[in-house]
């Protein structure tokens, strides 16, 4: 979750105060205003992601819904293989486990190297041993440790073997420039609450010809142009995937969020986070009982510092997080970060994660280092 700039809040308030009506239904002035604002937001995301046209942008509630839309809309056959990494968020793990039961697909995990980087050789070997990989669905930047997989290479290998590729971009889109055409990704999902925007908003990008081919996931109002008692005529993308009343304030606020972080510059955000991460990594890496998850080089972990703690006098990840919050108002995450499979496989219960964004400063980084050192000292003899 990120903090929200006033520009986003004001854009949403404008909708509720000035034209709080439904879009896509009426021809009066306020409804037309909503339609204009929704279209504008869609165009902003097209440009933000480098999509070919606005129709490739589908508004969802979050990354989870986007991933589930594809999982439930692609025409899988029994025995089709879906590949994921070994550190997927539950949102890109559980849908494939469900589809394995429902449609008879096979979910195969690509295990990482010892340092948690992607094993490109093991990935390619799977294709040499199997000719029925239908989809590669992988976390672009992991919320576990901030590591970004070599997406361009992965996509080329997958496409060379006839497989589609979907990226979970929840942790990449807010933090670095994304160009879905340059990557040649088939699908790309993101959550707006992670990019200075409102909660309950997400985007799914899909290549237009694929969106035309796949079936809608949730159907009803606004997905069809006409219906009879015998059947219905579906609208083209993106409408056929955006069923029912939309979160118009959220869509408009999402457009404002794109404007905001684009004005800062995604490359600037990426470099700022790496600079702060480097300061923190150097300051905490030698603390007793602390082990950083993922690559030890901070530039390979973007804006995330995750670590486990093993302390002589007890005290676990949750204790560390509580003390940081109660003593100095430092907000961190503790637990398994919805990546339970990774932690269970390694018989590790929990970790602490500090997540950085554009508003975090070097002074805050130094304060975190100092407070974490004192906190760990409380649990050492």
Task: Characterise this structure.
- With 381 residues, this protein is α/β, with parallel strands linked by helices.
- The chain folds into two domains: 6-264, Type I PLP-dependent aspartate aminotransferase-like (Major domain) (Aspartate Aminotransferase, domain 2, 3-Layer(aba) Sandwich), CATH 3.40.640.10; 266-378, Aspartate Aminotransferase, domain 1 (Alpha-Beta Complex).
- The chain has helices at 6-18, 29-49, 63-73, 94-103, 120-129, 151-160, 180-183, 208-213, 248-264, 266-284, 317-328, 340-345, 362-378, and strands at residues 57-60, 81-85, 106-110, 133-139, 164-168, 187-191, 202-206, 224-227, 232-234, 290-292, 304-309, 333-335, 351-355.
- The strands form three sheets. It has a seven-stranded mixed β-sheet, with helices on both faces. Strands 10-11-13-12 form a four-stranded antiparallel β-sheet, covered by helices on one side. Strands 8-9 form a two-stranded antiparallel sheet.
- Strand 8 and strand 9 (232-234) form a beta hairpin.
- Helix 1 runs antiparallel to helix 9 (248-264), helix 2 runs parallel beside helix 9 and helix 11 (317-328) packs across helix 13 (362-378).
- 42% of the residues are buried.
